[in-house]
Design goal:
The complex is a heterodimer of chains A (about 110) and B (about 120). In chain A, a hairpin with a 6-residue loop joins strand 4 (about 35-40) and strand 5. Chain A has no helices and 11 strands. Chain A has strands at about 5, 10, 20-25, 35-40, 45-50, 55-60, 65-70, 75-80, 90-95, 100, 105-110. Chain A is globular, with a radius of gyration of 13 Å. With about 120 residues, chain B is an all-beta fold. Chain B contains no helices and 11 strands. Chain B is globular. The chains are: A mainly beta (about 110), B mainly beta (about 120). The interface of A and B includes residues 36, 43, 91, 101 and 103 of A.
């Protein structure tokens, strides 16, 4: 089954941009993933589905500041013009015929 | 807009069975081709997938929990359910139900504490 690897933490300044990475395990580089945001004390929220081609589909209400891209086994979530409300945990997720798999999550701090 | 809402006891005794229900509104649970999942999150930790049920009724479970988990669906009530047997303190967590697809949807979560 696929394994997803994320950095445990990231930080960036208010108004700047940050690029979070999710890496698919060997043999799974073509997999589609999804990104989810979890603000403190809240349930996760679906952000987007991201393909290996870099094409992505965002959920309703997700700001234009959020975008996705891909390179090989790496899937990226870029947040531009960082706002204080973007401080959250970000999880990537993928699936195959038998399982759902989550990455360990990246805690984003907005300075 | 699809909405999911978890319900069930907030406190379960060790060795007993945890039972939760997810009620789906804004769409039929039996329409489309979707997986309906249960996920949990212990305090301060990441998300752990428990298992899922397909629109057709077929199920998949996390291998680490498979021997204790049953997920079922009641299309007449637009609900799906989780049963986790022989619980211990390690099963204390916020439990979420969710639907895959584009977009995906999450419930608000419910805290289940395992304690005597």
């Amino acid at each position: 089954q696929p394994v997803l690897t994320q950095s445990s933490s990231a930080s960036a300044s208010l108004g700047s941009s940050v690029k979070l990475t999710c890496t698919l395990s060997s043999g799974h580089s073509s997999y589609i993933i999804a990104w989810h945001q979890q603000q403190p004390g809240k349930a996760p929220r679906y952000l987007m589905k991201l393909e290996g081609s870099g094409s992505y589909n965002k959920g309703s209400g997700v700001p234009d500041r959020f975008s996705g891209s891909s390179s090989g086994a790496d899937r990226y979530l870029t947040i531009s013009n960082l706002q204080s409300e973007d401080e959250a945990d970000y999880y990537c997720e993928t699936w195959d015929s038998n399982t759902w798999v989550f990455g360990g999550g990246t805690k984003l701090t907005v300075l | 807009q699809v909405q999911l809402q978890e319900s069930g006891p907030g406190l379960v005794k060790p060795s007993q069975t945890l039972s939760l229900t997810c009620t789906v509104s804004g769409g039929s649970i039996s329409s489309g081709s979707y997986y309906w999942s249960w996920i949990r999150q212990p305090a301060g930790k990441g998300l752990e997938w428990i298992g899922r049920i397909y629109t057709s009724g077929s199920t998949n479970y996390n291998p680490s929990l498979k021997s204790r988990v049953t997920i079922s669906v009641d299309t007449s009530k637009n609900q799906f359910s989780l049963k986790l047997s022989s619980v211990t303190a390690a099963d204390t967590a916020v439990y979420y139900c969710a639907r895959d697809g584009t977009p995906g949807y999450w419930g608000q979560g419910t805290l289940v504490t395992v304690s005597s």
